[in-house]
From TrEMBL:
Organism per entry: Paraburkholderia lacunae
Domain of life: Bacteria
GO MF, one annotated term: oxidoreductase activity
Listed SUPFAM superfamilies: Clavaminate synthase-like (SSF51197)
Keyword list, A-Z: Iron, Metal-binding, Oxidoreductase
Xref: PROSITE patterns: FE2OG_OXY (PS51471)
Location of the region described as Disordered in the Swiss-Prot/TrEMBL record: 1-31
Residues of the Fe2OG dioxygenase domain: 133-235
Low complexity bias: start-end ranges: 11-25
Gene3D superfamilies listed in its UniProt record: q2cbj1_9rhob like domain
Classification lineage: Bacteria, Pseudomonadati, Pseudomonadota, Betaproteobacteria, Burkholderiales
Full protein name: 2OG-Fe(II) oxygenase
Annotated coiled-coil segments of the chain: none
Family in the record: Belongs to the iron/ascorbate-dependent oxidoreductase family.
Length: 273
């Protein structure tokens, strides 16, 4: 568990502890690793499946094994950085924001920006996708379910941006009974809601339009551990100021803590002072 006071201090020690900079583990070439996988898929078929499920796709085996291994190593290495949150009746769990990932696990940031990955997601969605703005702590983040009762209740990944926001959820560690329960077509009055449930193994993927998929993660039992990695891509990175405020407050309370969320803003403010 990190104390927030540590978040502003980047010491040589913390860099040396970085799982991704360990001299014993060479990070794989991300673009090549993604391309080697995606070229083996029946992509026209996947695109049809994505559209038929109202912008939702699950693949149990997506990432190259060497990429999954690197993510597992990073997730375990970042256990001491997890920010715990508890919102009675809605969510309980831990998270590591993109700001911490940038400092300690740059491989994840590289995967997020992979042109091969983004290009493949564009093929699936039919949308031109952009990375989320630099001050969005959800752009890429790790979510930890490590204590009995850790879960998140039914919700949408609502976009506060002007355009659509897609969530890519990658399985990293799953030594748990947690499931992603979901309901398709809830925003479409012409199609009956269609429930589903998956357990996402390491290297598995779920990709969806955050405003369309109603979903939850069921509670972890004692001595279980689940870590997922989510990437958020947007079609229009513009956000109106009032929505920005709501989004920041929600992130500060429900996910990453005030220091992580407002640090960027404070810095920006200082830059302009
Ligand atoms: Fe979600």
């Amino acid at each position: 568990m990190s104390t927030h006071a540590e978040d502003d201090v980047i010491s040589p020690m913390s860099t040396e502890r970085s799982p991704s900079s360990s001299p014993t583990t060479a990070a794989p070439n991300v673009d090549r690793a993604v391309a080697n996988r995606t070229r083996t898929f029946d992509n026209p078929r996947l695109r049809k499946d994505f559209a038929a499920q109202d912008a939702f796709l699950y693949l149990e085996d997506f990432l190259a094994p060497e990429v999954t291994a690197q993510l597992v190593q990073s997730a375990r290495g970042l256990l001491g950085e997890v920010n715990r949150n508890y919102l009675p009746g809605h969510k309980q769990g831990g998270s590591v924001s993109r700001h911490t990932i940038d400092r300690l696990a740059p491989f994840i940031a590289e995967l997020y920006r992979s042109k091969e990955l983004i290009g493949w997601l564009e093929q699936l969605s039919g949308d031109k996708l952009q990375v989320s703005p630099a001050d969005d702590p959800h752009a890429y983040a790790l979510y930890y379910y490590t204590r009995a009762g850790d879960h998140i209740g039914w919700h949408y990944d609502t976009s506060y941006y002007d355009g659509r926001r897609y969530t890519l959820l990658l399985g990293v560690i799953d030594e748990s009974s947690c499931r992603l329960d979901y309901e398709l077509h809830t925003r479409n009055p012409d199609v009956p809601d269609q429930p589903g449930s998956v357990q996402i193994p390491p290297g598995g993927l779920v990709f969806f339009d955050g405003d369309k998929l109603r979903h939850r993660i069921t509670p972890a039992a004692a001595n279980e551990m689940r870590v997922s990695l989510t990437f958020e891509y947007v079609t229009d990175p513009n956000m109106r100021p009032w929505r920005r405020f709501i989004s920041n407050m929600k992130d500060a309370i429900a996910y990453f803590g005030f220091r992580q969320v407002f640090r960027q803003m404070t810095r920006r403010g200082k830059d302009h002072a």
